[in-house]
Amino acid sequence: MHHDRMNELIRYRGYRYPPEVISYTVWLCYRFTLSFRDIEDLLAERGVMVSYESIRLWCHKFGPAYARRLRKGAGSEVSPQIQLCYQPVK
Predict the structure, then answer these.
(1) Which structural domain, as residue segments, surrounds residue 54?
(2) Is there a domain that residue 90 lies in?
(3) How many domains does one find in the chain?
């Protein structure tokens, strides 16, 4: 396993959601300056039920590193390749 991927998995260990969802959420927040509730709504439309409080905590913990990478012009590297399929919530 690639060293960077291993570090990423360790960093996200213990969270209920997969690293792809967390990184996508934080990327949305820092890339588009959306509110936590806006992001909560966007994710819910795609079938991912997460509270705005969890989003706030993720952004507080993981956000500074994402923001540094965005400021350095590494935007294409930061944006996660995630495919959130639209699934209606019953």
Answers:
(1) 3-78
(2) no
(3) 1
